[in-house]
From TrEMBL:
The lineage of its organism: Bacteria, Pseudomonadati, Pseudomonadota, Alphaproteobacteria, Hyphomicrobiales. The keyword Glycosyltransferase does not apply. Keywords: Membrane, Transmembrane, Transmembrane helix. The chain crosses the membrane at residues 34-52, 141-165, 185-210, 222-245, 252-271, 319-335, 342-362, 368-385. This is Glycosyltransferase RgtA/B/C/D-like domain-containing protein. The keyword Transmembrane applies. It comes from the Bacteria.
Amino acid sequence: MEGSSHTVIGRALATAAAEGVIRRLTRRAALDRLGGLFLLLGVLAVAAYGWLRPDYNWDMVAYVATALENRAEDAETLHAQAWAVIEEGADEAQEYHLKFSNPYNLNQWENPEDFQSQLSMYRVKVAYIWLLRLLEPFTGLAAAAILLSVVPAIGVGLLCLCWLWRAQALQGAFFLLPLLLLTDYSRMTSAVVPDMLLALVSLAALYALWRGREWLGCGLLFASVFVRPDNIVLIFAILIAAVLFNRRTLPVFVTFLAAFIACVAISRLGGHPGWWAHFYFSCVEIQNSMAGFNPEFSLLTMLKGYVRGAVVSLQFNDWPALLAVLVAGWALLARQGRMGNAGANALVFALAIGTLGKFASFPLPDDRFYFVFIAGMGLVLVSAWQPRLSGTAAT
């Protein structure tokens, strides 16, 4: 009787334990699905807003003009064609802002020669311009430019969803989506600029590297410099991390060398004014005309540019604070032994120094310029963390 009672009690306890595990696993599966749905709905909402309420900004005017440049006979014709595209889609308030909101915009509206001189800083985004021209016969230039922000934004969201699913960290979507929004995911989708296309290609490269597919990741990194040549900073940061963390360096070194050669060729063929002239224009004092603009180099002037960038970043942007939080999170996860293999640590290190390197190479304050680095760090760290809101694992 005693043995039988022990057996009955043991079976009851085992059954209760099994039922408890099943309940927790069911709760976890439900929260995983809820996290995935939360991310998906957030992405679709951002994409819908970007399509319905696109931001007709100054950069859009310049990119449209650059796409038209190969068929315009002179500056006046190019100016008229570019503004005709913008005026067709922009509302009255956007059109007024683009033409009359400040002395620089007014000058670009009134002086076709000055307007065309600005395009040397836009031609270097050769893949973006090529895609605009490719889509133009089907959608028109304005819609093509909007699509090249909205469609990559959806792609970024789906990539994040796939990444979290692979990492069994779908509940991390509750933390990842707010992070993406803080680092300008929504604004980048509405703004008609190549940054979201760059984010898609770069994050796909980081995902491939995270999964150990070095050559695929490096191929995507090489492609990214044709969208924005300054993404070579990311490649260089990954190369440094590969050396310091004893990872395979050959694929990244070959990629960096090829990307460097490509960037030099793109700059020369596109008539780019050079790093210092562009730095002066963007970080020190805007110029109505870039024709023949070749300011004398000055350490004091360069320092002013960095101070301005740092002050504006800290006062009006989120990327410095997010970088600090993510680095702290990395340290905590590493201390708890949650970071896994050296590859994940190497990626986070590369993205952290890449963020600082991006600012050091060109101290622009806007969050969108650091989106790839912050979003990439967030994805790697959430994947290592694997948060469980159901309480079935360490949080």
